[in-house]
Design a protein that fits this description.
16% of the residues lie in helices and 46% in strands. It has 166 residues and is of the alpha+beta class. Strand 4 and strand 5 form a beta hairpin. It starts with a strand and ends with a helix.
Length: 166
């Protein structure tokens, strides 16, 4: 089992943060597009080669996010129409998300029931920090991209909610 940690920089307007291993060495770099349309997050390896990309679809009635890994679209996260609580669906990559993904406490499970990853929020840290346990290293990039995409969905939802209350 491999453990990785994602800690966003609290005051970073550009959306730059890193994914570290247990030895606190950077293993992925994440850079968000600042003030660009469409909004994207590029996930790069240690040699700065892009391994995944999260993109928010523009001009869509309901928010939709696409996740590409190695240039191939593998996952879509989309908001479902609902009058009360926000609901999202995850389609693709042969995976399901079990648990409370909104609070970053969930398992990533393949359709055959095999758990390939576990994500939990780290408390008592400055800024959002997540512990990501990789149980199937072939799924590592997809799981990292999924966590970044979920964080992007949550940020987008928070921004939309604050825009309607002001």
């Amino acid at each position: 089992m491999k453990q990785l940690y994602i800690k966003q920089k609290v005051f970073s307007l550009s959306g730059k943060f890193t994914v570290k291993n247990q030895q606190e060495k950077d293993v992925y770099y994440v850079e968000g597009s600042f003030m660009q349309i469409p909004k994207t997050f590029s996930i790069m390896d240690t040699t700065r080669n892009e391994v995944a990309l999260v993109t928010k679809k523009v001009f869509s009635f309901l928010p939709k996010f696409f996740v590409e890994v190695h240039g191939r679209e593998v996952l879509t996260i989309k908001k479902e129409f609902s009058f009360f609580k926000a609901r999202y669906t995850f389609d693709g990559a042969g995976i399901e998300v079990h648990g409370n993904w909104w609070d970053m406490d969930f398992q990533v499970v393949q359709h055959d029931g095999k758990v390939v990853g576990q994500v939990s929020k780290e408390w008592f840290t400055w800024g959002d920090s997540y512990k990501v346990q990789i149980l199937d290293e072939e799924m590592e990039t997809i799981i990292i991209a999924l966590v970044v995409a979920i964080d992007c969905v949550k940020a987008d939802h928070a921004a939309a909610a604050s825009a309607t209350t002001t």
